[in-house]
């Protein structure tokens, strides 16, 4: 490929995650999109379907470039399927792109001129059709900015190493370092750095992504790449029986340890394919502790199951891919030519755990397409295009039991325009050339392992803002979320898009230039605590990722510059005897961090039989947050690195030097050390004047569990929960070991996604084994519940006063049984309550009786909500001396969500949440404590905050009665 850049630099492919920067569109290249005409830009069908991509290479003044070279590549991440080098005449070029032949992500175009001018564009699937219709214009220009990378290893320059940078527009540039270890690249005005990778022949590697921690400035002109030594690391691929799998291409991605996980990148010349022994050797595996890595298989025959280290080798276990089935579908409507549209299907029931199975196809001239899908998987399907949209649907394209195809049928409509505007600073300057993402979600459910699951997928698209900071996107009607992700800023906004309305989104960055912040540490007793004190600071505004590690001066003062609007800080004295934390919100005022004596936390880990568990990991996480749990991609909580301890032979552990008045989460591994699972021991908020008792934690099942409840007791417990929470009880008597019966019960009587009023019942399941005890059998006879034949289900409904409302015997083989069950649920569901009426009545009663109002939220599938309701019922006589007690279901009650929001004040606090008001509706206190919502009160922190609530709100309840209430709570 010819290039006019310096000889050491060449333009190449790009990462799939990058999107296009559309420089302009060529009206002279535009073609019709009329439904009546057959355009000349599409030909063939199926895997032979092709679309003609035409373009022009121009200078910024519009003059055609004759001497340009153009390279076009079809890519998916680092996989390059096919490359074209079309002839350029009078600045024009064209090429036929095979659009269904490969599982591709992007078509990349690079143009270069002999004088060094260049241009790049990435076209992703949903953009290709419009680019084919409009044509592509590449405006070449010469780079104007030079960026320098200094490559070093242990302080010494690394000479002649190779370097690759990936840019925000998707392009990759390559060069080599000189004898002094300095590599230089030249960038166009709109280009920014996304990632860098450097490698040398003497087995050194270095690299990072600019958006991952530690965050680096992509606009800076000088960067350092610290390279580390490598050694070859074998990657072994085998099946579940341990047999080697040969001839499989794979990628090994390697990164810094958790939690940062900053990837080094893969050197260009590293291509891994397993040999006859199932082994491929990665030549650039960094020698660092706790390296993070994973392997991706580039194979249609094998799917990754798990990866782990075994004796200095990285072992990947794989399984045979599931046989797929080809399903044909069609796109219709829209008064538009139906060819060239990208259809996307996604399913959570993928072959690889944690992945989404995406399949794509491009429609032929008749709007037809075919996709290869997994059997019995539920897919979300929609058209992905820049201008045209379809409602998202969900379906099972292929059902194996009946070998039935369910063709996806999608109807096109014109997208509704939405204008997104980006601004920054107090003067609201427009933010130009920034990528904006928009998404329209589709919620759906599916069956997996006999149980209902739910998830959200849907249409995604993007665009880049113009010089005025605006971009117009075309989307379906309904909920829309717009977001931006840059190296140092993230933001989002949700709107409801309506046809014919003025649909606009405005995302504003309040602080666009770093501001200086000053702070001071306040000692607990004397200034000696301030000497060499350290401060860790992190942004918690959810929009920025700033982090700082500072040392205070002799007076405890410190200073830093940030673009964040809210930060958390944790300070320690040099000897760790004192520590403190603070939230920094007002950047114009001096931030203050008060030190307190540090404390210890200790405990013991026992197994299910009460025996000590030795050498078991226990971890403490120190974190600071103001309760804003959800950000836009950056943290809303600042955490220090986890502290890990191993239990001794007696199962005991101890953490020292923990800060007071700071949230600390204590967790332990599960007994069998299952990956990504843990047992929460406690979340603590230590105070300077307290000493914690040892915490005993049992892992595993306790063989000495409580006595089994009789059927009558289970019935009465369920009945009580129904009475306290406005539910009705449904008894279900059946042999659920019969898979058909179990499936019927799950879908017809338990799946609230299918029938919302199922959430108004509490189900008591009775199976044949429950009837073996004569006591239980006697209860069944007393209730007149009949014997149930195989393949049948008996249901019976009761109101809160234990009156029988109705009963039915359902034959699951009868096609009408599901509709009978649905009608039964509709008929016997309790009437909906009105949360606003509850609110009004409670305050009217409180005014008449000179009491307060204690109102709480709860939901059907919330265990702590039921525990709180039972506790309140147990102590009703005392509590009603001061409180009118109200419970609101924020899901089922009319106006429930609105009333609950009034309680929570918009905070994402979960359920149950509760607040205490005076009779005039003034808030006295609520369940939001120093570590968040205490919910159903328990433990030291829960009891402490609930005591403060009662102290603040109680008038008639005595201190002695408050003490009894607190003591009745669980530890």
UniProtKB/TrEMBL annotation:
<dbReference type="Pfam" id="PF13899">
    <property type="entry name" value="Thioredoxin_7"/>
</dbReference>
<feature type="signal peptide">
    <location>
        <begin position="1"/>
        <end position="30"/>
    </location>
</feature>
<protein>
    <recommendedName>
        <fullName>Nickel uptake substrate-specific transmembrane region</fullName>
    </recommendedName>
</protein>
<keyword id="KW-0732">Signal</keyword>
<dbReference type="InterPro" id="IPR036249">
    <property type="entry name" value="Thioredoxin-like_sf"/>
</dbReference>
<feature type="region of interest" description="Disordered">
    <location>
        <begin position="443"/>
        <end position="462"/>
    </location>
</feature>
């Amino acid at each position: 490929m010819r290039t006019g850049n310096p000889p050491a630099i060449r333009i190449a492919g790009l990462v799939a995650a990058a999107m296009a920067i559309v420089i302009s569109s060529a009206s002279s290249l535009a073609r019709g999109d009329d439904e009546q005409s057959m355009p000349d830009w599409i030909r063939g069908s199926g895997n032979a379907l092709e679309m003609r991509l035409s373009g022009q290479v121009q200078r910024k003044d519009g003059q055609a470039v004759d001497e340009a070279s153009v390279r076009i590549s079809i890519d998916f991440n680092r996989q390059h399927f096919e490359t074209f080098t079309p002839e350029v005449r009078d600045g024009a070029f064209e090429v036929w792109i095979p659009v269904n032949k490969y599982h591709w992500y992007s078509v990349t175009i690079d143009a270069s001129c002999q004088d060094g001018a260049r241009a790049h564009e990435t076209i992703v699937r949903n953009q290709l059709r419009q680019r084919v219709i409009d044509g592509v214009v590449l405006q070449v220009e010469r780079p104007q900015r030079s960026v320098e990378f200094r490559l070093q290893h242990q302080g010494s320059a690394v000479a002649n190493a190779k370097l690759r940078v990936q840019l925000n527009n998707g392009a990759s540039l390559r060069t080599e370092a000189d004898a002094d270890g300095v590599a230089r690249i030249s960038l166009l005005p709109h280009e920014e750095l996304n990632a860098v990778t450097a490698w040398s022949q003497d087995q050194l590697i270095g690299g990072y992504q600019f958006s991952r921690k530690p965050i680096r400035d992509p606009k800076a002109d000088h960067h350092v790449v610290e390279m580390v030594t490598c050694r070859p690391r074998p990657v072994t691929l085998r099946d579940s029986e341990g047999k080697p799998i040969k001839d499989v291409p794979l990628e090994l991605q390697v990164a810094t340890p958790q939690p940062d996980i900053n990837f080094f990148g893969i050197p260009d010349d590293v291509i891994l394919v397993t040999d006859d022994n199932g082994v491929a050797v990665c030549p650039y595996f960094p020698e660092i502790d706790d390296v993070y890595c994973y392997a991706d298989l580039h194979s249609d025959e094998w799917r990754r199951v798990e990866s782990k280290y075994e004796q200095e080798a990285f072992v990947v276990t794989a399984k045979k891919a599931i046989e797929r089935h080809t399903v044909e579908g069609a796109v219709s409507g829209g008064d538009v030519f139906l060819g060239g549209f990208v259809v996307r299907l996604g399913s959570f029931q993928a072959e690889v755990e944690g992945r989404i199975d995406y399949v794509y196809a491009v429609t032929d001239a008749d709007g037809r397409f075919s996709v290869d899908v997994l059997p019995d998987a539920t897919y979300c399907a929609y058209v992905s295009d820049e201008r045209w949209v379809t409602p998202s649907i969900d379906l099972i394209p292929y059902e194996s039991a009946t070998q039935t195809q369910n063709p996806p049928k999608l109807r096109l409509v014109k997208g509704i325009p939405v204008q997104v505007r980006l601004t920054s600073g107090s003067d609201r300057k427009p933010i130009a050339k920034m990528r904006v993402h928009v998404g329209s979600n589709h919620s759906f459910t599916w069956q997996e392992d006999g149980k209902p699951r739910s998830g959200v997928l849907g249409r995604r698209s993007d665009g880049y803002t113009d010089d005025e900071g605006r971009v117009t996107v075309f989307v379906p009607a309904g909920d829309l979320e717009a977001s931006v992700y840059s190296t140092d800023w993230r933001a989002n906004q949700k709107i409801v898009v309506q046809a014919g309305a003025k649909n606009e989104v405005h995302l504003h960055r309040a602080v666009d230039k770093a501001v200086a912040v000053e702070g001071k540490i306040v000692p607990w007793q004397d200034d000696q605590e301030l000497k060499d004190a350290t401060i860790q600071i992190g942004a918690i505004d959810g929009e920025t990722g700033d982090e700082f590690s500072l040392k205070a001066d002799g007076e405890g003062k410190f200073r830093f510059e940030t673009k964040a609007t809210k930060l958390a800080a944790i300070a320690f004295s040099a000897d760790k005897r004192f520590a403190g934390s603070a939230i920094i919100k007002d950047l114009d005022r001096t931030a203050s961090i008060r030190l307190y004596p540090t404390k210890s936390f200790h405990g013991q880990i026992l197994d299910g039989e009460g025996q000590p568990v030795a050498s078991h990991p226990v971890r403490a996480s120190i974190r600071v947050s103001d309760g804003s749990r959800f950000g836009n991609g950056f943290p809303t909580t600042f955490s220090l690195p986890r502290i890990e301890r191993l239990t001794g032979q007696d199962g005991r552990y101890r953490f020292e030097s923990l800060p007071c008045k700071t949230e600390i989460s204590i967790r332990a591994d599960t007994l069998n050390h299952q990956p990504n699972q843990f047992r929460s021991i406690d979340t603590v908020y230590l105070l300077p004047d307290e000493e914690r008792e040892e915490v005993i934690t049992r892992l595993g099942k306790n063989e000495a569990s409580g006595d089994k409840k009789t059927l009558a007791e289970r019935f009465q417990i369920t009945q009580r929960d129904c009475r306290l929470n406005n539910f009705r009880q449904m008894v279900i008597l059946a042999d659920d070991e019969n898979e058909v019966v179990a499936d019927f019960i799950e879908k017809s009587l338990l799946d609230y996604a299918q029938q919302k009023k199922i959430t108004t019942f509490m189900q008591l399941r009775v199976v044949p084994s429950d009837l073996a005890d004569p006591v239980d059998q006697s209860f069944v006879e007393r209730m007149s519940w009949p014997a149930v034949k195989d393949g049948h289900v008996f249901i019976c409904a009761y109101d809160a006063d234990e009156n029988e409302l109705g009963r039915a015997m359902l034959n699951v083989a009868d096609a009408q049984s599901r509709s009978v069950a649905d009608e039964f649920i509709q008929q016997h569901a309790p009437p909906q309550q009105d949360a606003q009426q509850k609110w009004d009545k409670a305050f009217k009663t409180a005014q008449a009786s000179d009491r307060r109002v204690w109102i709480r939220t709860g939901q059907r599938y919330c265990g702590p909500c039921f525990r709180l309701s039972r506790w309140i019922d147990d102590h009703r006589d005392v509590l009603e001396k001061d409180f009118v007690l109200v419970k609101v279901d924020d899901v089922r009650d009319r106006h429930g969500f609105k009333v609950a929001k009034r309680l929570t004040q918009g905070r994402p606090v979960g359920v149950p949440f509760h607040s205490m008001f005076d009779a005039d509706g003034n808030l006295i206190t609520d369940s939001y404590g120093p570590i968040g919502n205490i919910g159903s009160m328990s433990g030291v922190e829960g009891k402490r905050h609930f005591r403060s609530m009662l102290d603040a709100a109680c008038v008639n309840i005595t201190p002695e009665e408050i003490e009894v209430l607190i003591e009745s709570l669980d530890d």
